[in-house]
UniProtKB/TrEMBL annotation:
Keyword annotations: Signal
Protein name in UniProt: Secretion system C-terminal sorting domain-containing protein
One Pfam family, short name: Por_Secre_tail
Species of origin: Algibacter agarivorans
Domain Secretion system C-terminal sorting stretches: 417-494
Length: 496
């Protein structure tokens, strides 16, 4: 079969605006966004804003941001900037990037709120927030059926729930999990509850960590959220287990709680993996080691990074807990500002694998210059300290352009869609010479998933037919995407 590509837009950037003067000790400034015409479900946020202290100067390190529906529904709970903040009132650009607590559905109300979380007897403090730029991005996602995890007892390995993954297809990089918590009996606190995603064995997709948001130093009822980028790809259909456990116990324990209404969503991204390499020797008290990456042929806009590197202290041994990483364009443009590893670091020079995962400060446009920098942030009179950084693996992933391979299945595939043009319905006929689950998905021109049907009972060599009822759809072009265990094929259809 011949092959080609179709690019479908997956992000929306709102018009920039000025939020104005921010005064500490108040609820801050809320700005409703214009959402008319926005369609689809959004999972990723990317926000920047220019800050400067004014009058009785506020510090940018105390400025927080929230995304809500103008009422009680929170898409991104209040938090300080991911990067850019200073312990001063100096001009700076603040960034907030990450995964929303819950999906934002395009067209619904969306409001951004800035506020200053610090005030004292010398306040109020003031600042000016200008040039606010907000981007939200879609991702092709799968939500598992909600369930109750039950009673959690501290001092045990917790509760593990295998998820039903039959029919889940593709590679997933994003997780978005919520769970209702309440302390029971000898009451546990929600601030000690941790979550892990694994394959039911030793393979870890998301290492154990406390909730991203929602936790309290009490046993009061609350909704816990875990959101972010997986340690490694989860391949749809493989085993996937979620584990909750209580990380605190003492002589007064065990402590108990109840975990209910667990909702697990995983989302796909389109990854690009660079060839692995060795960064070499790192010496503290220097600017570190910078390695330009080969970006020829990389296309699309990228938001997600997933980086691993093997560390070992050498000579006057450095500690892995002081190693930092940044992504830039080889100059002043920063895609990921310098930060310590997300996990894997130790307060010693022992061999370990360091991992950095998350959402970039700003989009990286494929083909542009991209450089990774490692450096050791600690030095003292006993230094310099040295270490070796090897086996660096870099993955970047995008949502902004989802590329579908058109007719990429081999010549043994019999896949037809008719009638074209269609009026009220189309039929999808297919036949394969191998055993497979078959997923049929219908997308509009914006890349929004309209319909999805999964055939888990396909019999090798048989001719199967699926009807798609398109009565409620408008007159335009659509794409029918067929997915099997061996590949993807896409066909264009158009209404009469």
């Amino acid at each position: 079969m011949s092959s080609g590509t179709i690019a479908t837009a997956q992000s929306h950037t709102f018009s920039s605006f000025d939020a104005g003067t921010l005064t500490s000790g108040t609820t801050g400034v809320s700005v409703p966004l214009t959402t008319t015409g926005i369609t689809g479900d959004y999972l990723i946020y990317e926000i920047s804003a220019d800050f400067i202290g004014t009058g009785n100067m506020a510090w940018s390190s105390t400025i927080e941001m929230e995304l809500n529906n103008g009422g009680s529904e929170i898409f991104k709970d209040v938090d300080k900037a991911t990067s850019g903040s200073l312990d001063s009132g100096n001009a700076t650009k603040l960034y907030w990037t990450g995964v929303l607590n819950k999906k934002y559905i395009g067209g619904d109300n969306l409001t951004i709120r800035f506020f200053d979380s610090f005030n004292d007897a010398s306040g109020p403090y003031t600042s000016n927030i200008t040039n606010v730029v907000i981007s939200i991005s879609k991702a092709d996602s799968h939500s598992f059926s909600s369930f109750d995890a039950g009673t959690l007892t501290s001092g045990t390995s917790g509760v593990s729930i295998p998820l039903t993954t039959t029919g889940v297809m593709g590679d997933y990089l994003i997780y978005q999990i919520s769970a209702d918590f309440i302390g029971t009996g000898n009451v546990a606190w929600s601030s000690t509850i941790e979550m892990e995603l694994n394959n039911g064995g030793s393979e870890i997709f998301k290492d154990v960590g406390k909730a991203t948001s929602g936790s309290l130093d009490s046993g009061n009822a609350t909704t816990l959220h875990w959101t972010g980028v997986l340690n490694k790809k989860y391949i749809g259909g493989d085993n996937l287990t979620i584990r909750f456990f209580d990380s605190f116990n003492d002589a007064s324990g065990p402590y108990t709680s109840n975990i209910t209404n667990v909702v697990v969503t995983i989302a796909k991204a389109n990854p690009h993996s660079f060839p692995s390499f060795d960064a070499g020797t790192l010496i503290s008290g220097t600017t570190g080691v910078s390695v330009p990456l080969t970006t020829t042929g990389v296309t699309g806009d990228y938001l997600i990074y997933q980086i691993s590197a093997d560390f070992v202290g050498t000579g006057n041994v450095a500690w892995s807990s002081t190693i930092e990483m940044g992504l830039n364009d080889g100059g002043s443009e920063i895609f990921k500002n310098v930060g310590k590893a997300t996990f894997g670091s130790q307060d010693n020079g022992n061999a370990t694998t360091l991992n950095w995962i998350g959402v970039l400060n700003k989009k990286y446009v494929g083909g542009d210059d991209l450089t990774i920098r490692f450096f050791d942030s600690f030095n003292d009179p006993s230094g310099p300290y040295t270490s070796s950084i090897t086996n660096v693996n870099i993955v970047i992933a995008n949502f902004d352009n989802t590329t579908l391979n058109v007719e990429s299945l081999d010549s043994n595939t019999n896949f037809t869609v008719y009638p074209i043009p269609f009026e009220y319905e189309v039929f999808v006929d297919y036949s394969f010479d191998y055993q497979t689950d078959v997923a049929i998905q219908l997308y509009d021109l914006k890349g929004v998933l309209i319909k999805s049907v999964v055939n888990k009972n396909y019999v090798i060599g048989s001719q199967s037919k699926t009807k798609l009822d398109l009565t409620a759809l408008g007159n335009q072009m659509y794409f029918v995407k067929l997915i099997t265990n061996k590949g993807i094929s896409v066909k264009k259809i158009i209404s009469k």
